[in-house]
Amino acid sequence: MKKDKAAMVPLSTSTSLVLTPEALYQHLFSQRNGWGNQKGKKAKEESYLLAYSGGLDSHVLLHLLVAIRKENPHIRLRSVYVDHGLQEASSRWADHCQQIAHSLTVEHDSITLNLMISKGESLEAVARKARYQALAEHLHENEVLLTAQHQDDQAETLLLQLLRGSGLDGLAAMPEESPFAQSYHMRPLLAYSREQLEQYANEHALKPIQDPSNADNRFDRNYLRNEIIPELKKRWPQMALTLSRSARLHAEASQLQATYLDVEMPILRGSTNKEDTLSVKAIKQLSPIKQKAVLRHWIKQSGFKAPSAAQIEHIIHDVLNSVLDAMPLVAWEGAEIRRYKDDVYIMHPLVSLPADARWEWDINQPLSIDKSVADLDPADLGELRDILLEKSTPVTVCFRQGGERIKLSKHEHSTTLKNLFQERNIPPWERNRIPLVFAKDQLVYIPGLAITGVKDLAP
User: Fold this and answer.
1) 364 & 320 share domain
2) Which of 247, 339, 378, 457 has its CA 20 to 30 A from that of 65?
3) What's the pLDDT at 186?
4) In a domain, 378, yes or no
5) Order of strands, edge to edge, in the sheet holding 450-451?
6) Is residue 14 part of a domain?
7) Beta bridge partners of 282
8) What is the mean pLDDT of residues 29-39?
9) Tens digit of pLDDT for each residue in 337-353?
10) Residue 12 included in any domain
11) Number of domains in the chain
């Protein structure tokens, strides 16, 4: 299954669609994925995992999907209940979901989370992140995740993003289809209103779970849903439909901007020409507005959470405009921006490593040090490995302590690590994280950088 980098723009929300299995099939599945009863052709098998909470939205979607599956046997359907452990009734709800899925002959599982909420963290944000991480781990190969957000949820999301001061990507709200894990995440009900779902549930005598936490207005989304949006609908009855259309227009503009920026990104790369770097000189030739757009696009393209407007300003002021020999750092959740010479780097936060640690390495097998450090492979030692094994030379690994030198193959004199790192443009924050391989007391190998020649190995 091919995975596009950009999220797919929501389908038209200019009018409400009829909510039936046939209409849903035609609206989303048949037209988008090329399904349909083509003469002489066998329909391609499709597998779906529904995040099923037992509430109105997911219950309606489950019922619709089962009806679609009945007419389209090439569809494979599973459901899963995610128990956040935040409600006393959650275990009963898990049993209820299991019973409903079983009655509809849908394979079903439950996932129990153990949430840890740190001081100052948003319960909603932590729960959402943990839920989607669990769903990603539960997803089978070539299986698509389905969730049941609808048109009113889209309107709420857009209002929340406006109140948070979000940019173009945020105001695009939720796409109907976007890359997720190694597959896709689809929201088939985004074109349908809550009223339509309620009507469908009544017509089919569905008995969804009523979650009392939905009445807790301490949560921003509940406050909007219970207090603000009902008042807005009195004045603007089609508010949800109109805001969904606005989200779609923002999504189109965001995708168009991304298309233009993709064309320019190769000429903005840093000296290593890797996607995790940008050239300071190249970015500073752009207008201030375009600098911000490029940074946001690069960060999103690199798979990191979007920074705030204030953090973007810090990147421009503290990183792009820093003096050449400075080592600036701008960090936010899950990401760090650093600079070395003309290159700006984006990376996951660096974890501290034991500076004085030392490992004995059996060079008959790889050595794992830390998940943030690549494993050492004996094959990379080349013919040096054979000599060390023949002489039974003890091999140890440690990090830089200072003053180390290495004799490179075909070089008359040894060189210091400081000079070697500078020559190879190794950023300062990486220098103390590179494992050094010693044969007795002689530094013989630096992964990816240098190795001692066999003739230069001490006796």
Assistant:
1) no
2) 247
3) 92
4) yes
5) 358-360, 395-398, 436-439, 442-446, 450-451
6) no
7) none
8) 48
9) 999 999 999 999 988 88
10) no
11) 3
Quote the tokens at residue 259. Answer: 């298309």
Verify that 365 and 417 share a domain, yes or no. yes
Average pLDDT over residues 103-120: 85
Q: Is there a contact between 372 and 433 (Cβ–Cβ < 8 Å)?
A: yes
Give the 3-state DSSP-derived string for the chain, with helices as H, strands as E and coil as C.
CCCCCCCECCCCCCCCCCCCHHHHHHHHHHHHHCCCCCCCCCCCCEEEEEECCCCHHHHHHHHHHHHHHHHCCCEEEEEEEEECCCCCCHHHHHHHHHHHHHHCCCEEEEEECCCCCCCCCCHHHHHHHHHHHHHHHHCCCCEEEECCCCHHHHHHHHHHHHHCCCCHHHHCCCCCEEEECCEEEECCCCCCCHHHHHHHHHHCCCCCCCCHHHHCCCCHHHHHHHHHHHHHHHHCCCHHHHHHHHHHHHHHHHHHHHHHHHHHHHHHECCCCCCCEEEHHHHHCCCHHHHHHHHHHHHHHCCCCCCCHHHHHHHHHHHHCCCCCCCCEEEECCEEEEEECCEEEEECCCCCCCCCCEEECCCCCCECCECCECCECHHHHCHHHHHHHHCCCCEEEECCCCCCEECCCCCCCCEEHHHHHHHCCCCHHHHCCCCEEEECCEEEEECCCEECCHHHCCC
Residue partners of 42: CB distance under 8 A and separation at least 6? 74
- Binned at pLDDT 50, 70 and 90, residue 40 comes out as very low
430: domain range? 358-456
Count of positions (residues) in the chain: 459
Q: Are residues 443 and 320 in the same domain?
A: no
List all residues 6 or more positions away from 346 whose beta carbon is below 8 Å from its beta carbon: 276, 277, 298, 299, 302, 304, 335, 336, 337
b/e per residue 9-47 (b: at least 16 CB within 10 A): bbbebeebbebebeebbbbbbbeeeebeeeeeeeeeebb
pTM, rounded to two decimals: 0.76
Comparing CA positions, the residue from 87, 84, 129, 88 lying closest to residue 111 is 84
CA atoms within 13 A on the CB side of 153: 19
Q: 33: pLDDT confidence band, cut at 50, 70 and 90?
A: low
φ, ψ dihedrals at 209, nearest 5°: -70, 140
Beta bridge partners of 145: 49, 185
